[in-house]
Amino acid sequence: MSDLPKPIDQIQGKPAFATPLTPRRRAILVGSSRGIGAALARKLAGEGYILALLDRNAELLQAVSDEINRTYNETRAMSYAHDVTDYDSVPALLRRVIADLGGLDLFVYIAGVIYFPDINEFNFEEDRKMVEVNLLGGMAWLSQIASLFQSMKGGQIVGISSVAGDRGRVGNPGYNTSKAGLTCYLEALRNRLTRHGVQVITVKPGFVKTEMIKDVQRTPFAVTAEQAAEGIWNAIRRRKQVVYISGIWRWIMLTIQHIPSVVFRRMSF
Amino acid sequence: MGLHHRKPMNNTFTQFENFGHSLKAPSYCLHPTTSGEIHEIFHLAKKTGLTVNARGGGRSYNDAALNGGGILLDMSAMNQFLEWDPASGRVRCEPGVTLEQLWKKVLPDGWWPPVASGTMFTTLGGCLAANIHGKNNFRMGPIGEHVVEFTALLPTGAEVACSPKKNGDLYYSMISGLGMLGIFTSITMQMKKMHSGLLEVHAWPTRTLKDHLTSLEDGAPHYDYIVGWLDTINTIGHGQIHAANYLHEGEDPEAQKTIRLSYQHLPDRLFGVMPKSLLHYFLTPFANNPGWGLVNQAKYIASLRRSVFRESHAAFHFLLDYVPLWELSYGRGGLIQHQSFLPKETALHAWTEMLALAKKQGLPSYLGVTKRHRPDKFLLTHAVDGFSLALDFKVTDGNRARLHRLLQEYDRIVLANGGRFYFAKNSETSPETARTFLGEETIAKFRKLKKRCDPNGLLESDLFRRVFGG
């Protein structure tokens, strides 16, 4: 094989094949054009994964996969434009993606949106969007993946939830609800699937320096998307169950979860 | 019957492995029972954009019987005998019939499959697709030469009948065609007449590689079967030759008894006590370099005495079935096999270099098997006028990268010496390597036939995508 970089249209072919001596794990990343998703895509590609990247922003997504394929001079990433709220399209798209990948070892659901309501505002339209993307889109994908992995008796599922799902707070009831729902759904999947050899990881990031929080004033313990991707990779490698990113959030949230309601409902936090 | 209950739409994957347990691929598994159902599956594949591959016994060491993310046809339900004529020794059966079913059917009437693989759990469809050979390749050629006729369903929907005379181009390409041109629906084969259930086996040791190859070459004309075992861990060239002859009429006074199935039975207990199904657990502690070195040394010492003995056909042929699930003893990473076919003029030179390289790098093969071959006329043939050497390697997380480099070097040496490879065995053959040993012309011919038989590209295996780029 030549070491010269190939033109991009040649690299965008079929993915590199797996052999017993050059094994390739395969992953689907839903929501990977920016932020944590794009960083995780780069990380997994570096670990030799073959990736199917999905996002509604086709242009940004293509740029991510082009960059990965150029870096490794072979097809390690394929991109698919997809809106997670188009629930009905999931089964057919999944079938096509797995056929293109030639199998599946890892599924990561990253897609998420956030709106910031005022402290006295209730905005059902925005709440609905958050629940549709963060929770229902996740359930549309995860339910398909769960049944596939169950039949394969193996596989890893990663859901990117949030520390925001650990407690309903004054700031953003809709977002809290969407992430609490996702956390709960992932836990239920873990309880259903562990007995079938499938591993489910719930990732709960605190603040990650992505576009999502660009308007947020105070972001304690914030990490970069690359640091978050590193944390997620460690969780995948070590087959963890629930991880906070960064780790300090485990203790912060443990404390917050134990604040008695009589106090918590008077707090502005 | 199985078809309608398990459409690929219902999100049910089955995880399949290769024989060496070194690859995994999930597929939608369907179980056709008739060619009509295979036809329906082609329609389904076209509609859903999925590809189809047929799987027989799953005894290939590589990815020939895998189709990750696509449809895999479990052909085991198409395992009926359609005709058997004990007078002429001609059998017609469905492709899912295994070699075990076949010899058990024909032996009591005094016949034996003309060509047999080292395991009896292969299916005839798979045997034809890979065009397997046995320990008598130098005499009887590959299995394809004993196929009188076959019928196959093409993805176009046409069902074709092929023999050397009729549709000869398809006959010589679908046999050896890796199941990529169509799916066999019936196979007619000529069996070989037997006068005994026994073979007369001659065993003698070899001390050097040169000695070994000379033994194979000089011995072959005098025997019906010949096979060698090489110790590649301790002293390269230490080995043993097993050569066998059929018994002629009258040579076996108890022919009526030895030809019975009960006489051919491989014992299922070791020393009459330990169930052999557990034996692979006891091999596991030896499946490392010093352990296997010890086993090989012991085997060589035991082989130093020349001997002549009589052995049942099943015991002589199906060595791989002696220890059920032996391949599991290689552990989590499984095993791979590298088999190279070299012309008789260059074999010694190439294998001396290859075996020394393995030894130098501390990557010894645990099992080395040699055979004598002759060329054949099939399109994707692996045969040469020379010898083959099959080397088993244990795969671990620690040796993967080094083993990969070693086998790349092996492929280079084999190509430089005019050698070829076998698509049922090697899992690391690159498209470039295949192009070199098959030749551009052969590949162009294969692609042209592929386009004619399968214009929509419905038939694909992991092997096809790997070697022919899909």
Overall mean pLDDT of chain B: 92
- Low-pLDDT runs of chain B: 1-6
CATH architectural designation of chain A:
3-Layer(aba) Sandwich
> Largest interface, counted with CB-CB under 8 A?
A-B, 26 and 40 residues
- Based on the structure, what is the oligomeric state of the protein chains? heterodimer
Q: What is the radius of gyration of chain A?
A: 19 Å
- Main sheet overview of chain B: 8 strands, antiparallel
CATH architecture field of the largest domain in chain B: 2-Layer Sandwich
Distinct helical segment count of chain A: 9
Q: Indicate the CATH class of the largest domain in chain B.
A: Alpha Beta
Output the structural class of chain B: alpha+beta
Output the structural class of chain A. Answer: alpha/beta
Strand content of chain B: 15-25%
Instruction: Tell me the number of strands of chain B.
Output: 21
Give the number of domains of chain B. 3
Distance between the termini of chain B: 31 Å
Q: Percentage of helical residues of chain B? A: 25-40%
Quick rundown:
By secondary structure, chain A is an alpha/beta fold. Helices cover 45% and strands 13% of the residues of chain A.
Task: Offer a few descriptive terms.
heterodimer; A: 269 residues; alpha/beta; Rossmann fold; 9 helices; 7 strands; B: alpha+beta; Uridine Diphospho-n-acetylenolpyruvylglucosamine Reductase, domain 2; Uridine Diphospho-n-acetylenolpyruvylglucosamine Reductase, domain 3; Alpha-Beta Plaits; eight-stranded antiparallel β-sheet; five-stranded antiparallel β-sheet; 17 helices; globular
Structure description:
The complex is a heterodimer of chains A (269) and B (470). Helices cover 45% and strands 13% of the residues of chain A. The relative contact order of chain A is 0.12. Chain A is built from 9 helices and 7 strands. In chain A, helix 2 (35-46) packs parallel to helix 3 (58-72), helix 2 crosses helix 7 and helix 5 runs parallel beside helix 6 (173-193). Chain A has one domain (22-264): Rossmann fold. By secondary structure, chain A is an alpha/beta fold. Chain B is of the alpha+beta class. Chain B has 3 domains: 2-75 and 460-468, Uridine Diphospho-n-acetylenolpyruvylglucosamine Reductase, domain 2 (2-Layer Sandwich), CATH 3.30.43.10; 77-193, Uridine Diphospho-n-acetylenolpyruvylglucosamine Reductase, domain 3; 198-433, Alpha-Beta Plaits. Chain B has helices at 2-5, 35-48, 99-106, 124-130, 137-140, 168-174, 209-219, 255-258, 261-264, 279-283, 289-303, 313-317, 347-360, 400-416, 431-438, 440-453, 462-468; strands at residues 14-17, 24-30, 52-55, 71-74, 81-85, 90-93, 111-112, 147-153, 159-162, 183-190, 192-193, 198-206, 225-230, 239-246, 269-270, 274-275, 307-312, 335-343, 367-373, 386-394, 420-421. Chain B has an 8-stranded antiparallel sheet with strand order 17-12-14-13-19-20-18-21, sandwiched between helices. In chain B, strands 5-6-10-8-9 form a 5-stranded antiparallel sheet. In chain B, helix 13 (347-360) runs antiparallel to helix 14. The relative contact order of chain B is 0.14. Chain A binds chain B through residues 1, 14, 17-23, 91, 95-96, 98-104, 144, 147-148, 151-154, and chain B through 8-9, 11-15, 18, 20, 22-26, 48-51, 62-63, 68-70, 333-334, 336, 395, 400-401, 403-404, 407, 427-428, 432, 462, 465-466, 469-470.
